[in-house]
């Protein structure tokens, strides 16, 4: 299984900078993994890159979520999760299971055969049931 993630620190480049060597490399890796059929779990920057490749728009938040805990609807249930992001995906792509904020349209998580992703960090101490969330996403991929 392939995984993509970023550290809680701000990303190495913005996910919209497709010409940035780091972002271009990450886009290539995510594209190759998707095409290979290898299960993929993408977190934070990886989620943004995956979302962009799937056709979502990426927008810069007016105020970054650096170390912010929020309660979200995670595929039909409330979860308190930790965010560390400046950019978020927005929009809708048919055929995907999407967890998003009903007011802002910010995509919190995606699921589809072969991949899952989260904008928030399930491994963060700010995510109350992070291990359960990771187990659920990984089990769904395998």
How is this structure best described in words?
- The longest helix has 16 residues, at 21-36.
- With 142 residues, this protein is of the alpha/beta class.
- It is built from 3 helices and 7 strands.
- Strands 1-2-7-6-5 form a 5-stranded mixed sheet, with helices on both faces. A two-stranded antiparallel sheet has the order 3-4.
- Helix content is 27%, strand content 37%.
- It has one domain: Rossmann fold.
- It is globular, with a radius of gyration of 14 Å.
- α1 (21-36) crosses α2 (45-54).
Query: Based on CA inertia axes, which overall geometry fits?
Result: globular
Main beta-sheet annotation: 5 strands, mixed
Q: What is the helix/strand order?
A: EHEHEEEEEH
Q: Major sheet: order of its strands?
A: 1-2-7-6-5
How confident is the prediction overall: mean pLDDT? Answer: 91
Q: What is the terminal separation in angstroms?
A: 9 Å
CATH class: Alpha Beta
Secondary-structure topology with pairs:
Layout (H helix, E strand, L loop, with lengths): L1 E3 L16 H16 L3 E4 L1 H10 L2 E18 L2 E14 L6 E4 L6 E6 L2 E4 L11 H12 L1
Parallel strand pairs: 1-2, 2-7
Antiparallel strand pairs: 3-4, 5-6, 6-7
Helix pairs in contact: 1-2
Organism: Kutzneria kofuensis
Protein name: Anthranilate/para-aminobenzoate synthase component II
Keywords: Glutamine amidotransferase
Note the main attributes of this structure.
Rossmann fold, globular, alpha/beta, 142 residues, single chain, 5-stranded mixed β-sheet
Structure at a glance:
The protein is of the alpha/beta class and 142 residues long.
């Amino acid at each position: 299984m392939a995984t993509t993630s970023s550290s809680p620190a701000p990303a190495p480049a913005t996910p919209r900078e497709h010409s940035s060597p780091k972002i271009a490399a990450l886009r290539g890796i995510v594209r190759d993994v998707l095409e290979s059929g290898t299960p993929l779990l993408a977190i934070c920057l990886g989620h943004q890159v995956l979302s962009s490749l799937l056709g979502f728009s990426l927008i810069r938040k007016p105020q970054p979520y650096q170390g912010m805990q929020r309660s979200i609807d995670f595929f039909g249930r409330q979860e308190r999760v930790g965010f560390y992001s400046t950019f978020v995906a927005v929009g809708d792509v048919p055929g995907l299971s999407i967890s998003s904020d009903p007011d802002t349209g910010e995509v919190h998580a995606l699921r589809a055969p072969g991949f899952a992703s989260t904008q928030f960090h399930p491994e963060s101490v700010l995510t109350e049931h992070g291990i359960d969330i990771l187990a659920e996403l990984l089990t769904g991929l395998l």
